[in-house]
Design a protein that fits this description.
- By secondary structure, this protein is of the alpha/beta class.
- The chain folds into 2 domains: about 190 residues, Spore Coat Polysaccharide Biosynthesis Protein SpsA, Chain A (Alpha-Beta Complex); about 240 residues, Spore Coat Polysaccharide Biosynthesis Protein SpsA, Chain A (Alpha-Beta Complex), CATH 3.90.550.10.
- Helices cover about 35% and strands about 25% of the residues.
- The chain contains 15 helices and 18 strands.
- The strands form 2 sheets. Strands 1, 2, 3, 4, 5, 6, 7, 8 and 9 form a 9-stranded mixed β-sheet that branches.
Amino acid sequence: MEKRITCFIPSSDKESIGFTTASLKDSGLVEYITILINEDKDPVNSDVSFIRSQGFTSTASVKKMADAAKTDYILTYSKEFQLDLSKFALERMIQICEDTDAGMVYSDYFENKNNHLLPHPLIDYQEGSLRDDFNFGSVILYKASVFREACSRMDTEFQFAGLYDLRLKVSQNHKLVHIPEMLYTEVESDTRKSGEKLFDYVDPRNRAAQIEMEIACTKHLKDVKAWLKPEFNKIRFDAGHFEYEASVIIPVKNRVKTISDAISSVLSQQTRFKFNLIVVDNYSNDGTTDLIQSFAKENNKVVHIIPERKDLGIGGCWNEGIFHEQCGKFVIQLDSDDLYINDNVITRIVEAFYSQQCAMVVGSYKMVNFNLEDIPPGLIDHKEWTPDNGRNNALRINGLGAPRAFYTPVLRSIRVPNVSYGEDYAVGLAISRQYQIGRIFDPLYLCRRWEENSDSALDINKMNVYNLYKDKIRTIEFLARKQLIKSNGDN
C-alpha cells in the first residue's frame, strides 16, 4: 500500500502520543508523523520526528507543516488526547477527497466522554461558514498541494489564527467537504453545557485571539469581494406617523417565573416621550397570560397581543408587534426572562438613534443567574464592534449583542424571519448591509442564565440545527453583499 499521508499532531503525554501514532501507522497510509512541540520543550517520543513551533495554531507552525510534508496529503490532528481511527478511515477520506476534487475533507466522529462513546455529527460547510469556531472535528485531511498553495498566500503572522487563515484561503479556490460518517473516536475534555460555551468568543481572556480572527476574516472578505466599505445610507426619522416614540416588544411563551420582572422593569422607565410595551403572548398555558392581563388592566401602557396564528416562532411574534397599529417609531427588545438594569434604558437607546444617526442600536448586558447575581463572563459589551469594520466582522461572530433596538420603518421593510433562534442576527446582518448600527457599551440589561433558557443545554443535534441555520443566514448575507459590491462596480 502506498504511503501518501504526512501527519501533524500536537505534543502531549507519552501514552497519548503512543496510542495516536500507533493508530495512524496501522492504517498503512501514513509515511511520516511529526509532533509539534513548544520551543522550550523536549520531545517525549523518539520514534517520530518533531518540529519546534509557536503553537499548533500559529502561522509559523502551519508554514512549517507545509515545508515538511512531501506526500500527497497532509493530515492534522489537533487534540492532545488519544486518537482512535476507524478501520479504513484514511482510505475513505482520500477516496472522498479525490472523488469530489476537494481541497480539504472532514468527518463525523465519536467522542469518548467519561468512557462512554457518543456520536458527534457535524454539519456541511457553506460559503457563509465564516465563524472561527466552526467544528470540523479534530482530524482534517488536506491535499498537500492545496495546503502549500494556501500557505504561500498567508502574508500575516498570527499566533492564534493560523489554521483559521489557512482554512479561509483553502476555501477560496477549493471545496471543503463533509463526510457524514463516524471515522474516528476522540476524547472530549470540554464537558460544559452548550449555554456555558456560548459566550467564549466575548470572554475578555480570548480578546487577543479574536482580534487575529477578525484580521484574517477581513482579509478573506476583501479577497472574495464581499467586504463592505464604511459607507452607509443616510437615515432619516420622518417616515410615517407614530403616536409613540418607542415601544418595547416582549415575545413570550410560558415564562410565569420571570415575566412579571420583565414587565415591571419596562413600566419603571422614566422618559420625556410616550412609550408603550407590546407583549406578544404566544399561547402560554402556565399562568403567564393571566399575569400579563393583570398588568394590562392596571396600566394602559401595556398592550397584550395573542396572535391569531399558532405557527409563530419568536420572529413571527416580533412581526406581530412591529406591524401593530400602536407600535412606536423605535422598537426595543427585551426577552421575557430578562430585565432592564435601571429606569433610563429606553431614554438612552432613543437618544442613541438620533445622536449616532443609525437604523439599529445594540447595547450591552450583564450575565446573571436566576437570582440576579453576577456570573462569568460578566459584562457582554461586544467591544470588538467598530464603526468601520463592525458589519464585516459580524459575519464571523455568533451574535451582535443585546438589547437590540430598531427604527421601525426599516425593520418593517425587512421583517423578522419566523424562527426562534438567530432571527435577531439575521435582521442585524441585513440592516448592517445598508445602515450604520449604533452601539452603547454600558450595560443596559440583566441577562438571566438559567435552566429554562432556550440554549442552556442543547444536545448535539439541536446545536447542529441552530448552527446550520446561522451559517445559512451568513451565506445569504455573504452572497447579497457580493451582489451589492458587483452592482456598485467596486473592485
